Amino acid sequence: MQAAPRAVWRPPALLKVLLIGNLQEGGGRWVARTADLTYFPTPWLLGLKREGDLFEPGKPGVVSIAAVDPDGKTVEAGRLKAEISLVQGNWHTVYRNGRYLYTWSERILPLEKQDVETSGGLAELTFTPRQHGLYLVRVATADGAVVGSRRFSATDPDGDDGGVGTGRMDTVELAFDKAEYR
Hints:
mainly beta; flat; three-stranded antiparallel beta sheet
């Protein structure tokens, strides 16, 4: 099996793909087949890590960055561009078809940008969260071909985090393009 995704779509992480196909033969018998593959979208990926995932508002914190190849070895990534954003989330009540639905929306507010130089495939990014809340850190190559991102929470020492979670990864949702695949 070969994967040939569109060139414009580049997920920020390695994907484990499982495909399941079912078909009914002319005689009525159902036949199923499965295939799985590991899809590495770029020659190497960027990983971000913070010990404990939490920052304290008003105090500098460090995010470790690593550029790794499919074998898990570090690779030289050169100069990277980092963007730190505050994530504001809100629940909304929507009345539709005689029912109330609760939906979540997010607004990404860019706060600062930094250039980060890697050495031996490793780097550190330092920033100071201004307030408690959820922060999104995105790191990319200059051409944007390789991107890594991670969410971190800034929490007061007494544990008040304003109701946000910690260390949540970005997600990618996939949808099949043909009705037969659904």
